[in-house]
Design goal:
Blueprint lengths: L1 H48 L16 E7 L8 E2 L6 E6 L10 E7 L20 E6 L8 H5 L6 E9 L2
Antiparallel strand pairs: 1-6, 2-3, 3-5, 4-6
Length: 167
């Protein structure tokens, strides 16, 4: 009986070892699959995050250096300048912090607290460079005193997004 009991014990121990070995191999296999899956997911995420610029004002730059940069001239800090005709205003927008090396594609909007919903020129970009651009606004309404824009009373400011190359 002792032999038989010892044999069963040894058989049980051997079976347990084989099971542990199989479980270890299975765990390693699962770990490897998880790592491969994570790397694949990271590669897919990199590809999905890639910004593609189809064309622009100048010949393309390095696709790895494509950048989206945005900003505002600020509700309380926009330096509107009166045009020589004394009815319209413009502002120079500095985008040097973006680090563009070529003229980016620029989209603008005028944001404020009052009386800008029907102002012509809010999305018109003038004299764009890699360092900045100008927005001119036409004050076509008689009920819009230019002084209110220049004083900052209406808090008009330019919101912008630029897409371009940094190398």
């Amino acid at each position: 009986r002792r032999v038989r009991g010892s044999f069963l014990t040894i058989s049980l121990i051997n079976a347990t070892r084989r099971t542990i070995m199989m479980m270890s191999r299975l765990s390693l296999l699962l770990l490897a699959l998880c790592l491969i899956s994570t790397v694949d997911a990271q590669e897919r995420a990199k590809k999905e995050k890639t910004l593609k610029i189809v064309n622009g004002e100048e010949e393309g730059g390095n696709p790895r250096c494509a950048l989206i940069c945005s900003g505002t001239t600020g509700r309380n800090s926009t330096d509107w300048v009166e045009s020589s005709d004394e009815r319209n205003v413009f502002v120079r927008v500095d985008i040097t912090q973006c680090g563009f090396t070529k003229i980016p594609t620029i989209v603008t909007s005028v944001e404020g607290e009052y009386n800008h919903f029907d102002v012509p020129g809010t999305s018109s970009v003038y004299r764009a460079t890699a360092e900045g651009f100008i927005v001119h606004l036409k004050n076509s309404a008689a009920n819009r005193p230019i002084e209110d824009v220049l004083s900052g009373k209406w808090k008009w400011n330019v919101e912008w997004i630029a897409v371009g190359y940094t190398c």
